[in-house]
Amino acid sequence: MEDVMGYVHSVETGGTVDGPGLRYIIFLSGCPLRCQYCHNPDTMKMKRGKMTSAYELLKDIATYRSYFEQGGGGITVSGGEPLAQIEFLRVLLWGAKQMGIHTTIDTSGYLGKKADDELIDLIDLFLLDVKSWVPETYKNVTGVEIAPTLEFAKRLQKMGKEVWGRFVLVPGLTDAPENVEGVAKFVGSLDNVSRMDVLPFHKMGEHKWQQMGMSYQLNNTEPPTPESLAHVQQVFKDQGLNVH
Ligand code: SF4
Fold first, then answer.
1. How far is the CA of 76 from the centre of ligand 1 (A)?
2. In the chain, domain spans
3. Which residue puts its alpha carbon closest to atom 8 of ligand 1?
4. 20 to 30 A Cα–Cα from 174, which one of 83, 133, 180, 223?
């Protein structure tokens, strides 16, 4: 496969939450969503990223091979939205698979239609963020429609691909019982979801919104209480999901 240039925001090594084992995480720039709670608003615009050669990145990834083998890890392509730069993503994943490295992408699924089956076959694990269930809430949280994410989730099930589901609990925004139960029932109905992460909202990205002169709508929102987080986790467990 030929080299391709892509817009990369940053790279992090040693991540432990974005997939199994120790991860080399590549944050790509560009995302069509505008999530109110985004931790990385500086990744939303593609051209803010640094033009990078996929081959150069793969050379760096290759130096971590023994570390992946010992730690059971691999690469996770995050963002931004990794599916926003399909051809760059394809070369990265292809190169990683050539080296026998485990591959994961962290996606909202909104651009799932852009991914052909060959690309999907290069991905071992999908971190799929189902940001809400009630269509109006989904739109309010992300600025886009929910349908493409649901279609993508069903397609991954059909293809038998492993998925870890994700849901961010934001008091006053995503915590309505109908919304939580809808996500839990939908994800629980899929037979390819091996783990579900219910993530409490936090404000770690707030300063980035301010730095970028963008208005942050959750200034007055606090993280969920431990009780409410435990309650929502139970709603997911009741659907037979392996909740973390
Ligand atoms: S999908 Fe992710 S990167 Fe895109 S706006 Fe939402 S939280 Fe931010």
1. 15
2. 5-237
3. 38
4. 83
